[in-house]
Design brief:
Elements lengths: L15 H11 L7 H14 L3 E5 L2 H11 L7 E5 L4 H9 L3 E5 L10 H11 E3 L5 E3 L6 E4 L11 H10 L5 E3 L7 E2 L2 E2 L6 E5 L12 E5 L2 H11 L3 E2 L4 E2 L10 H11 L2 H18 L9 E2 L11 E4 L6 H13 L26 H6 L3 E4 L7 H15 L1
Parallel strand pairs: 2-3, 2-6, 7-10
Antiparallel strand pairs: 1-11, 4-5, 8-9, 10-11, 12-13, 14-15, 15-16
Helix pairs in contact: 1-8, 2-8, 3-4, 3-7
The structure holds pyridoxal-5'-phosphate.
The site of pyridoxal-5'-phosphate has 14 residues, from α3 and α4.
Length: 385
């Protein structure tokens, strides 16, 4: 039996085992330990941030970041509908609702022109200086773009919108390790950015996340919130906190992964270019490729079926690839179509609705080898031509 070429699996051939052994040998398996501190330093440096707060997951990191930014019960947070459900869930964990907006076709990220137009059309400024949604009466509490696939959208525009309407700018940067904008790391682009180190990410801790940025005070508040808001040395707590701290075991894996970050990000970009070059002839069949911004992290790679194709066709193609022992998968279903968020305010969704059913993610692990890549390409060509 031949092995399946997997979609995106962890690459654990560095120091992961050695550092995990060290955790066991020293008994530092919980949230106090040298690897957590080391991992935070590495992530801060890699993202151009003044600090990083390691968390138990990306979702918990976003929840803590939104809470630190002041998002409260009954408020609205602007996010793209085309994202992983965790972006919306983190908003709901604050008791707030997502205000779902469409993406731009160029980078699959929240469309800044649309965000401005929607705010202008639907919001009014009240005497407290804050903006409120006219129909739902909810205060707009934050703006949270997502760096889809590791693509960084025009953050100058988002910064301007955030400044104009006095909104905290938080980014779901779950998939974006290694991504740059105008040649700069992304740590300073938003008030807070949140990474995920889930198993399918470019860098993994098994599970985990990190909140990064350049506002030390805000990051200190995030750290405080993620560690139960305890005021040491006694059992004093000054607000409702969370137990969201990363463990030393997770961080041990993370440190070993970060040691090879540049290699991993480079490989992700190579894989993306390989598919785009070798499958170029499929363009005449209406196939296109995942967008990549300048400096984009290229977390996932794959193809987009011709306009008008639907999910059943995408699944059919994945099924055919499976017969060749190739794992391929459809991608995110927009949040406005998901049961818990059907009643949330949202913009027109022309791009998201036209796009989401046509996406096929192809194998793109950082340890994928040339013969495997070649097999994916030849199989696809065989199926489609
Ligand atoms: C865009 C996006 N946001 C948030 C998350 C949530 O991260 P985690 O699984 O670490 O909670 C993920 C990935 O899992 C993601 O892809």
């Amino acid at each position: 039996m031949t092995d399946m070429i997997p979609l995106a699996v962890p690459n654990l051939t560095g120091n992961e085992k050695k550092y995990l052994d060290h955790c066991i040998d020293t008994t530092f398996v919980s949230s106090v330990g040298e690897y957590v501190t080391m991992f935070e330093k590495m992530v801060a440096e890699a993202t151009g941030s003044v600090d990083a707060v390691a968390t138990s997951a990306g979702t918990t990191g976003i929840h803590a970041a939104l809470t630190a930014a002041g998002v409260k019960q009954g408020e609205l947070v602007i996010i793209p509908s085309f994202t992983f459900i965790a972006s919306a869930n983190a908003v709901r964990h604050c008791g707030a609702d997502p205000w779902l907006m469409d993406i731009s076709e160029d980078d699959w990220c929240l469309d800044p022109d649309l965000v401005r137009a929607e705010i202008e059309k639907n919001c009014e400024k009240k005497s407290d200086g804050k903006i409120y949604h006219r129909d739902t009466k909810q205060r707009i509490a934050a703006l949270m773009p997502v760096y889809t696939l590791g693509n960084i959208p025009d953050m100058d525009q988002f910064r301007q919108i955030a400044d104009d309407y006095e909104l905290p700018l938080i980014v779901d940067a779950a998939c974006a390790i290694g991504a740059t904008f105008k040649g700069q790391n992304f740590g300073s682009l938003a008030d807070l950015s949140v990474l995920s180190f889930n198993g399918n990410k470019t860098i993994t801790c098994g599970g985990g996340g990190a909140v990064v940025g350049c506002n030390k005070e805000l990051l200190d508040h995030v750290r405080h919130l993620t560690t139960t808001a305890r005021v040491w040395p006694d059992y004093d707590f000054d607000e409702v906190g969370f137990n969201y701290r990363m463990t030393n075991i997770q961080a041990a894996v993370g440190v070993a992964q970060m040691e090879r970050m540049e290699l991993f990000v480079k490989k992700k970009r190579v894989v993306r270019s390989f598919y785009e070059e070798k499958l170029d002839l499929l363009r005449e069949k209406g196939i296109s490729f995942f967008p990549a911004t300048d400096g984009g992290g290229c977390w996932f790679s794959g193809i987009v079926l011709p306009e008008g194709s639907d999910l059943s066709q995408a699944k059919e193609l994945c099924g055919k690839l499976k017969e060749y022992d190739i794992e391929a998968r459809a991608f995110w279903k927009p949040v406005h179509l998901q049961t818990p968020y059907k009643n949330c305010p949202h913009s027109e969704m022309e791009v998201s609705e036209k796009l989401w059913q046509r996406i096929i993610v192809l194998p793109c692990s950082t340890n994928i080898v040339d013969v495997e890549l070649e097999k994916v390409v030849q199989s696809l060509i065989g199926i489609m031509i």
